[in-house]
Amino acid sequence: MQAAHARGEASTPAGNGARATRRPRHDGTPAGPSAAPAGVPRRTLLGVAGAAGLTVGAAAGAGGHALAAEQPRALSTVGSASVPFHGRHQAGISSPLQAHGHLVAFDLVPGAGRDRAAALMRRWTSAAATMAEGRQPAEDNQIALDAGPSSLTVTFGFGASFFDRTGLRSQRPEALAPLPPFSADALDRQRSDGDLFVQVGADDALVAFHALRVLQKLAAGTAAVRWQMSGFNRTPGATAEPRTARNLMGQVDGTNNPRPSDADFDARVFVPASARPAWMANGSYVVVRRIRMLLDSWDQLSLAEQEKVIGRRKSDGAPLSGGTETTPVDLGGRRADGSLAIAGDAHVRVAAPESNGGAAMLRRPFSFHDGFDERGAPDAGLLFMAWQADPRRGFVPVQRKLDRGDGLSRFLRHEASALFAVPGGCAPGEYVGQRLLQG
Ligand SMILES: C=CC1=C(C)c2cc3[nH]c(cc4nc(cc5[nH]c(cc1n2)c(C)c5CCC(=O)O)C(CCC(=O)O)=C4C)c(C)c3C=C
Ligand SMILES: [Fe+2]
């Protein structure tokens, strides 16, 4: 069953042969359903038709909801959309944002070394590839039984400690060196770092939880959950047309992300095939930060003050230097009174590649809300994720600059941090990380 393939969608510009039913947008926009009619996984069609047949008899006999039951309905485009697991790069990096996400770090259990880690990666890869097609892995728990793939992606990575635990220290990339401390850090070490990283994303909450649970069970005896964070983005179809995401401060967030159509997109986001260590070819490095938003303080600012902090209008994300959302920011632009249109400490000025020797990254976050603290303030913010070819030329210099002079930092608290090496994608029959673990 290859729902996406049957519809013959275009390959993603990432060049991994990936086909998705939703047009990939890389500006933080949860892309809307494609205009093409949705294909339906064969399993689902049979399942729906079979179930409907049974229901028709029962409903007609009861004189109840016969009409509804007589019309077996195809999955919505949201449910039937799929993102191929296999490809040059792992899925979940340049794929469109999904509505639900789980980020999980696992630690290898004592005594579990390279061989057991390799066996786990093989099990995880097989299950992830199966679920990405909307099929159930062996020994399933039926949580996602009625749903299609719902754009499920599963992405795997390795933390620095993995290489010590598996005797693979000589294979640890230099780019995986620990992130430097930043003055804004208030890090909880229990919720930071980890040997193995799994990112699950899907447009359906049950599909996302199903994948998480399957992967956690497959790890039993080899790796245990160290920390887990869950987040969300806007549901596809919630807006009349696809739009750039908003974060929990209400800002349009993701506008100036690198786009796959940019000539330098791959160079910024993915490790070149010629780079060392060789097993990281076509991979990427992800920085994960749990950034709490101090929303009670933020809400005390006027709209004009909030816009000044970012340097963009809140309503439509247009830069304060003029134009619409997609107009390039003019950092030299001035108002009639001669003052800078984009303030000296505006977030977009301080974070811009022009202010950081060209440093750039692909931001692909999830928002989070984990209740309210003892003072009634929301424990909410951004599960910030930055993907780049090398964090020493991406996240690190930009965060250093933000740490010193970003107007937004007064309203943020970085509570957890991790950096993972995410290998390239794999072909059917291979497993993610095979070149490292078998090399
Ligand atoms: C170290 C990198 C960054 C962190 C940490 C970060 C946190 C953070 N950002 C927002 C909101 C917005 N960020 C925007 C732009 C933007 N942010 C970064 C980097 C970090 N942000 C970059 C590189 C850029 C692009 C700058 C540019 O080239 O113009 C924007 C504007 C819209 C956009 O382009 O996406 C917003 C809004 C929050 C809320 C946050 C922490 C919670
Ligand atoms: Fe930002």
Summarize the structure.
This protein has 439 residues and is an alpha+beta fold. It contains 13 helices and nine strands. Helix 5 (114-132) packs antiparallel against helix 7.
Topology of helices and strands:
Layout: H1 3-7, H2 42-62, H3 66-70, H4 77-80, E1 100-108, H5 114-132, E2 153-158, H6 160-165, E3 196-202, H7 205-219, E4 223-232, H8 265-269, E5 284-293, H9 295-298, H10 303-310, H11 347-351, E6 362-363, E7 366-372, E8 378-388, H12 395-405, E9 412-422, H13 434-437
Antiparallel strand pairs: 1-3, 1-4, 2-3, 5-8, 5-9, 6-8, 7-8
Helix pairs in contact: 5-7
Residues 247, 249, 251, 253-256, 291, 293, 310, 312, 329, 347-348, 351-353, 381-382, 384, 386, 395, 398-399, 402, 412 line the site of ligand L6N33NVT.
Keywords:
disordered N terminus, binds fe (ii) ion, 9 strands, single chain, 4-stranded antiparallel β-sheet, 13 helices, 5-stranded antiparallel β-sheet, binds ligand L6N33NVT
Structure description:
26% of the residues lie in helices and 17% in strands. Helix 5 (114-132) runs antiparallel to helix 7 (205-219). The chain has 13 helices and nine strands. The longest helix is centred in the first third of the chain and has 21 residues, at 42-62. Strand 7 and strand 8 form a beta hairpin. It has a domain at 293-419. By secondary structure, it is an alpha+beta fold. The protein starts with a helix and ends with a helix. The strands form two sheets. Strands 5, 6, 7, 8 and 9 form a five-stranded antiparallel sheet that branches. The chain has a four-stranded antiparallel sheet with strand order 2-3-1-4. The site of fe (ii) ion (FE2) has 2 residues, from helix 11.
